[in-house]
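Example A, followed by Example B.
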Amino acid sequence: NIGTIHIKTGNYDEAFNSIESSISIHKKIKNHGGLGAAYNNLGYLYELQEKTEEALKFYLLALEEDKYIENSLGMSGDLNNIAGYYKKTGDFEKALFYYKRALEVNRGLMHIEREKKDLKNIIDLLGSMGRSDEKEIYEKALEELEEV
């Protein structure tokens, strides 16, 4: 999508216009997959601009669209983005909840690389929370997964 190209080049105004246009088109043609991706891109753009509340709003909209069409891969990305928001804002319990949901989705998909990423996110978060016993459980799961 052109919006993501503008994001990568740092042209945020053009990115915003492109993504807004994409959202409008996807709404008209009822393309939920495209709409979910566009909402996710807009959330990412807001996150880069440190507009965290707006970012969360669009990550949640992306999750709704991906759920609607049962796009599990998209959902796992959305869940990770939502978890990242809560981690940044210091709500570690909510972040942990969403990271664990992403892990469940990726296990269902048998997407090992994403599972590893989810486990690392959970381990890091549990470490920040001082929950070493629970952290060890996830470290063991990661070790087992890396042996595969």
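Example B, a separate protein, is given below in the same form.
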Amino acid sequence: MAATGGTKNLSAEMKEAAAKAAQESGIVQTALDIVQLYKGDKVATWEIIKKLGEGGFGAVYLVKDANGKIAGEYALKAEKASETTRVLKMEVYVLMELKKSNAKHFCDILDRGRANGYNFVVMTLVGPSFDNLRKTASPDKAKQKFSLGCALSIGICVVDAIEELHGIGYLHRDIKPGNFAIGKSDPRRVIMLDFGMARKYIDAQGKVRVPRWAAGFRGTVRYAPLSCHISRDHCRKDDLESFLYMQ
């Protein structure tokens, strides 16, 4: 019994240490940091319809233009204006740069700004993520797979999306099935999501930045490249390595 209790205590200590390290390095946000909005709430002119989902870096809400000037429904992400880690700022900047390059595997931004104590961005809606598509295919985990033809088509689109992101000088650093979705109106279109961990890998002169000797872990353990597990700086090949683990 004593040995069992010691093991439990050690496990708890390890979890606490891991959580503390993650928070100190800015990898995750606590639940208290996530903006909670409810049906009928407004951010600028956007009215909340419902919550679409929630992750480590915040929640996504289904919204409509309360003034009726913009038809349709859209996705809104928000973070507290007082937040010290500006995840949303990176997301907006990356999407704007991608728009300039006419990239085709990304959401369009309709609105962005600060209102009611929040920084926010409103984007076009997407369909289900690859994760959700696979899970709804069958209740049997062994059968939660795409057909060969579908997997090949998806794979080509994912590599295209990674190439477009790298083309504007950024790394994603969290490539995984949950960060890709199909188009809302075009299920053959693949869309890359979530750029809160993105990092510029080129300098102002367009040259590849010198890798850091040590870097904090970034990404999702299951799909993280080997270099992340040994605290090496992320580079372009690591995004592609994470893609291989999606198979």
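On Example B: Helices lie at 2-24, 87-100, 130-137, 148-167, 226-229, 236-244.
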